[in-house]
Amino acid sequence: MKRKICSLVIVLITSLLVLSVVPAVHGESYTVRPAYGLVQEPPEDTSQEVSFYELTPRAMIIFVALSFSPILVYPVEFFLMIKIFVYLGYRKIDEMAVLYNSNRRLIFETVARNPGINFNTLMISYGINRGVLQYHLHILELKGKIVRFHTAKSEGYFENSGRWGNLEKCIFIHMRNSTTKKILGILSDSREITRKEIAEILGVSGPSITWHTNRLSEDGIITITRNGRDASFRLSHDAARSIRGLSRALQSPVFSGQAHADQAV
């Protein structure tokens, strides 16, 4: 089949070459003069010469083809047109095939269900090799399926849907830590609370509370008021609004006790 197609192409090009060299028929010469003495001046030539290296790649190929024979322009144009269609078709198939790989599809679905999930959690959850997981995450980022978001000290992955703002992404990432999530839950149900009170509620040390609250403060989620050796915390205005928005979007309170906080605000 390939041999027949090649033979047909060769015959077609040969025929076109033969037709291009057929001598023109010469007739009697004649002279054309303008009527009534009207002579129009030729338009001013505004064209500018350019060097070969200033041409586009497509124009360079056509120029080289013309230097051998004018008839070669047609197969060159045909080849360029086919190449463009093949490239566009490849891009379309490539975009559709991103999730054909079962591991990659599983990673994408997990990220979509768990906004803010981090690399280690993904690796431990499915027992995927670090290098393999890095490769699939890179492909998903490259094809615009997911995005990696950085907080001041952490990072997490999100579906690239444009659903969440930056502060909401920060909150999701901090919620991946169980202690930080409990602290946010307490703050969402309180106007203001001290470090000592949080430590007593959670049964953890004061320095541990300080570590978590400092990270939340760095990302603009809470505000800290120093009071001697103690400190008090409250959600920032934007964070409180974002948490209420998350509750509406997820159709359930983000934290236990959130319903009471919404009523108090």
Plain-language structure description:
It is elongated and about 105 Å long. The protein has 265 residues and is mainly α. The longest helix has 24 residues, at 73-96. It has helices spanning 2-20, 57-68, 73-96, 102-113, 119-126, 130-142, 166-174, 178-188, 195-202, 206-218, 237-250, 258-264; strands spanning 146-150, 155-159, 193-194, 222-227, 230-235. The strands form 2 sheets. It has a 3-stranded antiparallel sheet with strand order 3-5-4. Strands 1-2 form a two-stranded antiparallel sheet. It starts with a helix and ends with a helix. The protein has a domain at 164-265: Orthogonal Bundle (Arc Repressor Mutant, subunit A).
Give a short overview.
The chain is built from twelve helices and five strands.
What's the helix and strand layout?
Elements: H1 2-20, H2 57-68, H3 73-96, H4 102-113, H5 119-126, H6 130-142, E1 146-150, E2 155-159, H7 166-174, H8 178-188, E3 193-194, H9 195-202, H10 206-218, E4 222-227, E5 230-235, H11 237-250, H12 258-264
Relevant terms:
single chain; 265 residues; mainly alpha; Arc Repressor Mutant, subunit A; three-stranded antiparallel sheet; two-stranded antiparallel sheet; 12 helices; 57% helix; disordered C terminus
